[in-house]
Amino acid sequence: MIQMQDAAFGYGRDPILSAVSLRLAPGSFHFLTGPSGAGKTTFLKLCYGELVATSGAVAIFGQDAGALDRDRIAQMRERIGVVHQDCEFLDHLPIRDNIALPLTVSGRDGPAQDANLDELIAWVGLSARAHARPPELSGGERQRAALARAIIMDPDLILADEPTGNVDWDMSLRLLQLLCELNKMGKTVLIATHDMALIRAAKAQVQARVLRLAGGRINAAGADL
Ligand SMILES: Nc1ncnc2c1ncn2[C@@H]1O[C@H](COP(=O)(O)OP(=O)(O)OP(=O)(O)O)[C@@H](O)[C@H]1O
């Protein structure tokens, strides 16, 4: 899915990531952890082609991310569902339309998709809130809506940046359970999180590995949970 070889990245002169080598195999489940500012979001951006490594190689679905033009990057991104840290929505649209936005933008919306959309909204437990506007949702509802939006295009790879950042423990477990179910359906999952309790809670549900990011390097040999 993702392969990095000596990948490095810096926004300015100082490197944020240096000499990162790892492989995310299809169907795997990884946590990415590390101190605040270590570069977890930056790493995720390299994984979905938002940023390009300043040196080294990043292959996404076997393709060299540094060599892809915009159209190819856009095509590749359709296979990647991203749950962003900030969970931003279009506030003037009902949450159902926000979740459907990737379908709309890619011209794949329409009656044929309505049943799938409603099934997905039910799966994340938002059927009763489908017509609410984003500002009316709780933190946990927003996080679940962000997850639904990330997977509406049926991606192969799910990248979630602090998906339990603003929710209580019960909701964190519910979100974790959804991500574990997606992994059991065959999706590759990578979750960036500070929450060690969440990582421990995953142990009962999936075989996950922990990647620790510190000093610009990733310890990819992290033990199984
Ligand atoms: N667009 C940018 N321009 C310049 N510096 C940036 C930019 N985005 C992030 N940084 C810096 O890069 C470093 C890594 O940021 P990043 O958001 O990847 O860390 P993180 O591990 O995800 O942090 P957190 O856990 O706090 O979300 C930080 O020092 C941050 O200030």
UniProtKB/TrEMBL annotation:
Residues 2-225 form the ABC transporter domain. GO terms for molecular function: ATP binding; ATP hydrolysis activity; transmembrane transporter activity. It comes from the Bacteria. Pfam families: ABC_tran (PF00005). GO terms for cellular component: plasma membrane. SMART domains: AAA (SM00382). One of its GO terms (biological process) is cell division. Keywords: ATP-binding, Cell cycle, Cell division, Nucleotide-binding. Gene3D superfamilies: P-loop containing nucleotide triphosphate hydrolases. PANTHER family: CELL DIVISION ATP-BINDING PROTEIN FTSE, IMPORT ATP-BINDING PROTEIN. This is Cell division protein FtsE. It comes from Roseicyclus marinus. The lineage of its organism: Bacteria, Pseudomonadati, Pseudomonadota, Alphaproteobacteria, Rhodobacterales.
